Amino acid sequence: MKNLKGIFTALLTPFDANDNVNTAELAKLIERNIEQGVDGFYVAGSTGEAFLLSEEERRLVYKTVKDTAGDRVTLIAHVGTVSTKQAVEYAKYVESIGYDAVSAVAPFYYKFSNAQVIEHYKAIADSVSIPLIIYNIPAFSGVELTLDEIADLLAHDNIAGVKYTSNDYFKLQQIRDRCPDAIIYNGFDELMISGLAMGVDGGIGSTYNFMADKFIKIRKFWESGDIKAAQELQCQANKIITALCKVGVMAGEKVVLNLLGFDFGVCRKPFDPLSDEQVEYLKETILPLL
Ligand code: MN9
User: Fold this and answer.
1) Which of 171, 125, 120, 176 is nearest to 144 (CA)?
2) Could you tell me if the CB of 203 is within 6 A of ligand 1?
3) 39 vs 16: CA distance, rounded Å
4) What was the pLDDT predicted at 221?
């Protein structure tokens, strides 16, 4: 099994002028991230606009990333959907094309019980032989599993870890303590060193699309005991993230990539494209910090 620890870019999905997935630009970004030294990619997650893609497009994204990255890095496919059946189909598909792991957000919208959410996760985990990473993001999914429920899921033979996107770092530390073998990923980039302090094994982040180098260094500084250097770099990254939060994170990230010479287009409706003033603001605030 490939190493699941480390720094994983939650890939954005580029769209061309006709609103189709731009596979050439996606391949270009993958190469840049591999050159920067990422350990892998998290494919078609929130950042990849998974819920705004058709089934065919999602499969195209999975395939493009695998065809481009090959075996050079570890690949985690986000297969989450509201339907267990559909999530299982995606999981089987990505396993068949050589992915190393799957991940899924909790089924949302219908306010399923936690017992139903747990059944959903176990069904995905049982359907494939590659490991499952739980995607814990209560603010977006509306699902808050308890510590006991998360620990119970992590005890499943084929559930390897959790992508932890929440501000509750006490709970993260409790998961770490209860499940020493689980792979835990930090989910909010702006809190990477908080996660490291509580024992994460790496991070999965959207801002890594254009600044993976900073997060690779933050982790290295932290692990080598240079806390001051890690804090300084986190502080610098957070100035960038503060600017992104002002305009909308994913739309802003696409603008930054476009300013760096990519052609990522804009986010899909109902997201709005940024105004000229917002683009100018990002250009002045972020580019000097990269
Ligand atoms: O993949 C991302 N989470 C979401 C993780 O988009 C919900 C993060 O990287 C955030 O975009 C980032 C900014 O808040 O931390």
Assistant:
1) 171
2) no
3) 27
4) 98
Amino acid at 192: M
Percent of the chain with pLDDT over 70: 100
Instruction: Give 135's strand partners.
Output: 105, 163
Which of the residues 163, 171, 217, 254 is marked catalytic?
Answer: 163
Per-domain residue ranges of the chain = 6-213
Please indicate whether residue 164 is annotated as part of the active site. no
Tell me, rounded to whole angstroms, the distance of Cα 220 from its chain centroid. Answer: 20
Q: Which long-range contacts (CB under 8 A, 24 or more apart) does 95-99 make?
A: 95/128, 95/129, 95/130, 97/62, 97/63, 97/66, 98/66, 98/71, 99/43, 99/62, 99/66, 99/75, 99/130
Q: Which fold has domain 6-213?
A: TIM Barrel (3.20.20)
CA distances from residue 261 to 46, 110, 288 in whole angstroms, order as listed? 23, 41, 15
By most ligand atoms within 8 Å of CB, the mutation choice from 13, 162, 207, 214 for ligand 1 is 207
d(CA 71, ligand 1 centre) in Å: 26
Could you tell me the end-to-end alpha-carbon distance of the chain, in angstroms, rounded to an integer? 34
pLDDT digits (tens, 9 = 90+) for 221-248: 999 999 999 999 999 999 999 999 999 9
Centre of ligand 1 from the C-alpha of residue 186, in Å: 10
Residue whose entry in the numeric block shows the structure tokens 């940024």:
274
For residue 102, with 0-12 CB atoms within 10 Å meaning exposed, 13-18 middle and 19 or more buried, which class applies?
Answer: buried
Tell me if 200 sits within 8 A of 162, measured CB to CB. no
Cβ proximity of 255 and 285 under 8 Å:
no
What is d(CA 220, CA 227) in angstroms, rounded to the nearest whole number?
10
Do 239 and 233 form a contact (C-beta atoms < 8 A)?
A: no
